[in-house]
Amino acid sequence: MFDYYFKLGLRSLLRNRALTALMILTLAVGVAASVSTVTILHAMSGDPLPHKSDRLFVPLIDILPVKGYVPGEKPGFSQMQMSYIDAQNFMRSKIGVRRTVMYGVAGQVEPARKDIGSFFAQGMAPTREFFTMFEPPFLHGQPWSDADDASGADVIVLSRALAEKLVGTNNPVGQRVMVLGRPYLVTGVLATWDVVPRAHHIIGSKGAFGPEDEFFIPFASAIRHETVHDGGMSCNGDNVVPGYQGMLASGCTWLQFWFEMASSGDRGQLQQYLDAYAGEQRKLGRMMRNAPNQLYDLNEWMAYLQVVDNDNKLAAWLAFGFLLLCLVNTVGLLLAKFSVRASEVGIRRALGATRRDIFRQFLIETAVIGLAGGVLGLLLAFGALAVVSRQSEDLGTVAHMDIPMLLLTFAMSVTAALLAGLLPTWRACQVTPAIQLKSQ
After folding, report:
1. Is the peptide bond before 197 cis (omega within 30 degrees of 0)?
2. Which residue, 63, 157, 203, 226, has fewest beta-carbon neighbours within 10 Å?
């Protein structure tokens, strides 16, 4: 019977093509608007490391002076980063299975190729364990060694895009490249690392949805060469001694730090360490605010920094409101379409069709509309995402549809059409055969 009802519904839709096209278009526009918005929101709020995000922690400690402190106030930007003194102490702590400190770096790259000139590139200066913690995929080679970390060796890991720009598709591992004014030995090349949000680099010039980091050099190497940081710094009125070494010895906050614990249950152990560390620092005359020491796992950290802000969420609700408006219009069109078929329903009822049969027939017809609306809505959604990608480089990293969102498009469209068809279908089932036959 399904095949029979499907053919009846298809014939009915083809009978009045203008009205059918209008219903499909109305539904498709609503689905495209909502799906494209939800697709972006889904990508922005996704968990980049779902298998370990509850084991990666950012510590927040307050080293600001007591003056101006209001207990209970939300930590400001200066507390979201860390001083060199505290970062070094944390690295030596041996707490957790891994630790990494990092900061953004940027400068000129001087290719050996004669056909292109020097150009500007942005990267990061982490420790080796960064690669194990955040798991970027490697195309060639590997991260630098622990010995390179300890000695501050001039080694580098390139992004795939930067490597191809420098040497084409050849493997550059073992070669030297001129970056930041000095030669670095290439130990590895990353494959395309398209994870978003980029939780490791939310604070910085690129942000959570910026392009990939183009290169990575050891933190110790960057410090040894006094490489200027690419990002924000807060010195909070400290009497900083001029020069790079003076900055390192000060309370200026400009570094980012991550702990990886063996399990999420070790969070309490890490919290105890932070509290004990703060107590020791107060004996040295630091951290005199005695503010609570905070820990954020990866997802909590993204929420704290409002990677997905209220404007994005409001946009999603508005998109669903627009879909609801399209559904109301579709209901009106279906009511108009089904009302003119009252005589057809009356004849079928008189010939023995039950209300359930009529209900199934009309519901299958609305499902056909939903399927067509889903296909058209998907095409419109792809178009909308392409427009968004061209308008914003940051949104371009999240304006793409994955398989779950592709399936959601069809599910939303068919479900929306079925919901829109419930009232018109129910009204069609209430037709009294005797009245319709008499009128004929």
Report:
1. yes
2. 226
Q: E strands within 273-368?
A: 294-297
Indicate the angle between helix axes 310-339 and 355-391, nearest 10 degrees.
140
Residue type, 381: A
**Each residue's pLDDT tens digit, 248-267:** 988 889 999 999 999 999 99
Whole-number pLDDT of residue 392: 60
In 117-252, DSSP assigns E strands to: 119-125, 138-141, 155-158, 176-179, 182-190, 215-216
Backbone CA torsion sign across 193, 198, 199, 204: positive
Are 385 and 395 within 8 A, CB to CB? no
The arithmetic mean of pLDDT across residues 413-426, rounded, is: 71
Handedness of CA 179, 184, 189, 194 (dihedral sign): negative
- How do residues 304-316 score in pLDDT, each as one tens digit? 887 766 666 667 7
- Angstrom distance (rounded) from CA 349 to CA 434: 9
Helix axes 342-350, 355-391, angle to 10 degrees: 140
Q: At what angle do helices 17-44 and 310-339 cross, to 10 degrees?
A: 160
Q: Is the pLDDT of residue 439 over 60?
A: no
Report the C-alpha gap between 292 and 62 in whole angstroms. 8
d(Cα 365, Cα 361) in Å, to the nearest integer?
Answer: 6
Q: Could you say which DSSP state residue 193 is in?
A: -
Q: What is the dihedral of CA 321, 322, 328, 332, to 10 degrees?
A: 170
Closest CA to 349 of 286, 429, 281: 429
Lowest-pLDDT choice from 67-71, 151-155, 285-289, 406-410 = 406-410
Q: How many CB atoms lie within 10 A of CB 76?
A: 11
Structure tokens at 292: 């609570």
**pLDDT higher for 295 or 357?**
295
146/374: higher pLDDT: 146
